[in-house]
Design brief:
19 helices, 65% helix, globular
């Protein structure tokens, strides 16, 4: 006999009831404040999408994988990402709660699926914060070198990285990257309204820098640089798409802020799609300018645009771009640390992690404890891991989250066609199936070491769920109470 208020499914397959999921289902009284409007949400999404993709990946892919066809690489990645974005938008219009893919998976596919995706995203989002912080520290060190400022060797990189060894008897850390992670944690702890203002201002700055690149660079395009357009063949452009896919998600982390949107069911789907469209337009324009200004063989893999403008006799513009890149990429740290903290908050409120983490600040109404935890862990990653090792932790969980969300939207469309949907994924089930297939295809590009690290984290997650989450889950308690 079904118990009123409880979801179908037993044990690890029990599901959160969607009909009541919009209610405050936390026993701790933890709650977030709805302060974000449509354009603030869109800014957070744009802040997460535009970053390393334009300022670093575009040059690296153009130089060694795709040539001028890097434009096609971004378009292919954008189309694949859009398939997942439509699925996220449909869920965001139905479930205006924190947690994003974790919450969607929990509600449709069961507790164990939600747990594993949430557990994965905690690692992936935190690792992305660390990777971006390390990347910004590299720009910062180059800028200091331009100003003839030399920092002590012990604070300019992780152990084993270039730049000299630490003095005998001392440690070597990437101090600037660590401080950046802690800075973003501090900003997020000032309350979502103030933090969103900080993020929005930096997004405007970043978009302004990209428009500067496009506007000024357009006058220095040599059409001959577009030939040959496919120097590495069509396969090079496709391989490039797998690489730049890292640069075309970010809306997924933004969707974790659904519970802090003033009108989530109306605004969140629009913000997801707006942020992806705006970002893709800027990516395409920037790629056209970059590959048109100088031959692809001469594009710098580290500082593509700054070097390109220096090569055409505009070093001052290049310096402005470098500074803008440093400040603009901060928005990526903000978006993904926000995502990690809201996923952890939602898991804690559901009882799968200790309730201590879901306690919000009495005045600012943000999960301060979990925010500082993520900030500290990201700082440790950023300070002690080389960027390559940190980057290897970032993609697999995001891709699997895309698979889960795309699959869940298909399942729910057929299981509960009666549910009101503020947005409906078009061409069902073709569009989410494209997202599933492309995400699984990209997973095949990951190195064996990445799978090993993922397997270890996966097993740790299962152990934590078995030892704590299963018994402390709110759904488990409600089942016991109704027995």
């Amino acid at each position: 006999m079904a118990v009123p208020g409880l979801s179908p499914g037993n044990g690890v397959l029990r599901r959160k009831p969607i009909d009541s999921i919009t209610e405050d289902d936390g026993e701790s009284g933890a709650g977030l404040t709805r302060t974000l409007g449509l354009w603030q949400l869109t800014a957070i999404g744009v802040g997460g999408i535009i970053g390393a993709g334009i300022f670093s990946l575009a040059g690296a892919v153009a130089h060694g994988k795709a040539g001028p066809a890097v434009l096609i690489s971004f378009l292919l990645a954008g189309i694949a990402s859009a398939a997942a974005a439509f699925s996220y938008a449909e869920f965001a219009g139905m479930i205006p709660k924190a947690g994003s893919a974790y919450t969607y998976g929990y509600a449709v596919l069961g507790e164990i699926v939600g747990w594993l995706i949430g557990w994965d995203l905690l690692l992936e989002y935190t690792a992305i914060v660390a990777v971006v912080a390390i990347g910004i520290s590299g720009y910062f060190n180059e800028l200091l070198g331009f100003l003839h400022v030399d920092l002590p060797l012990w604070m300019i990189g992780a152990p084993g990285t270039e730049g000299g060894d630490a003095p005998p008897g001392s440690y070597k850390v990437n101090l600037f990257a660590m401080l950046l992670c802690l800075l973003i944690a501090f900003v997020l702890n000032q309350g979502m309204k103030n933090a969103a203002r900080f993020e929005t201002a930096l997004v405007y700055l970043k978009v302004g820098v990209v428009l500067l690149v496009v506007g000024v660079g357009a006058f220095h395009i040599n059409a001959g640089n577009y030939t040959p357009f496919f120097p590495f063949g069509i396969g090079g452009a496709v391989t490039g798409a797998a690489t730049v896919f890292f640069a075309v998600f970010g809306y997924d982390a933004m969707s974790t802020a659904a519970e802090e949107s003033k009108d989530s069911q109306k605004h969140m789907p629009k913000a997801i799609l707006y942020s992806l469209v705006i970002s893709m337009v800027l990516y395409v324009l920037a790629c056209l300018v970059l590959t048109g200004m100088i031959p692809y063989q001469e594009i710098s893999e580290e500082s593509a645009f700054a070097t390109a403008f220096a090569d055409v006799g505009l070093p001052v513009v290049g310096a402005i771009i470098a500074v803008g890149a440093i400040l603009g990429i901060l928005t990526v740290l903000f978006t993904f640390m926000l995502g990690a903290t809201r996923v952890g908050f939602a898991m804690s409120r559901d009882g799968l992690l200790p309730k201590w983490f879901s306690r919000t600040h009495p005045v600012r109404k943000v999960p301060s404890r979990f925010t500082w935890l993520i900030g500290i862990v990201a700082a440790v990653f950023a300070g002690l891991l080389p960027i390559e090792e940190a980057a290897e932790l970032t993609n697999i969980g995001i891709l699997l989250a895309f698979v889960v969300v795309c699959a869940a939207v298909i399942v729910l469309r057929y299981r509960r066609p009666d549910l009101p949907r503020g947005f409906r994924t078009p061409l069902m089930p073709l569009v989410p199936l494209v997202g599933i297939v492309f995400s699984l295809w990209l997973v095949t590009f990951l190195a064996p070491e990445t799978w090993l690290r993922f397997a270890i984290w996966f097993l740790i997650g299962l152990a934590v769920y078995g030892a704590y989450g299963y018994r402390h889950s709110l759904l488990h308690k409600r089942t016991d109470d109704s027995a």
